[in-house]
Known about the structure:
Shape: elongated
Structural class: alpha+beta
Distance between the termini: 30 Å
Strand content: 35-45%
Number of strands: 16
CATH superfamily of the largest domain: Glucose Permease (Domain IIA)
CATH class of the largest domain: Mainly Beta
Order of helices and strands: EHHEEEEEEHEEEEEEEEE
CATH architecture of the largest domain: Distorted Sandwich
Number of domains: 2
Helix content: 10-25%
Amino acid sequence: MRLDKNTYGTVLLVYALSAVLAFLLFRFVHTAWLVRLLVALLLGFCLWQTYFHMVPDRRRAGSSSLVSAVADGKVVRIRRAYEKEFLCRECQIVSVYMDFWDVHANFWPVTGCVSYTMYHPGEHFLAFKPKASEENEHTCTCIRTADGKDVFFKQLAGGFARRIVCYAREGLDVTAGEQCGIIKFGSRIDIYLPLDAEILVEKGQYVRACETIIARL
């Protein structure tokens, strides 16, 4: 595992603030057991934030025809809907919700070429709510496979997320399972798939980025 390159400043800030708080505790709190407890909690928070922003090494199960999970998390929605931003057609949607304990690095779901990408500023509703898909801050990306299949996905910020990082640019050739970005704090991924795609996950299932196959094109 390695730390995401876009989170060095965030993690450094967490450690710096924790160090300042620890100093203040030792300086002004004179109850030894309380100081030890609070410092241990600060250390635990630092370690959690380090893990949270790590990019794990995973077995890459996706390909140009097998769609792998973009992120770790729980499948909260599988349904049909009209994608109106770029594809302009009916699709199948698989939504994966990431909680505070999931690694938040994101990975390309299929091998192909980026045909579209767009960042949208917006609100910060809780990511598992349906209206978050349209109203929250999000980034949209579409990948076209060698067979002409389109896989469109949204990186959605949640109630606490304040930054979405996406490495997509139009014309970029990408490989399933390589990192495509990161979302800081609770958030969601919506994957739009063709109607003839075979969905291979169920609502409520926990998926792992790169390793869990979401669908077969």
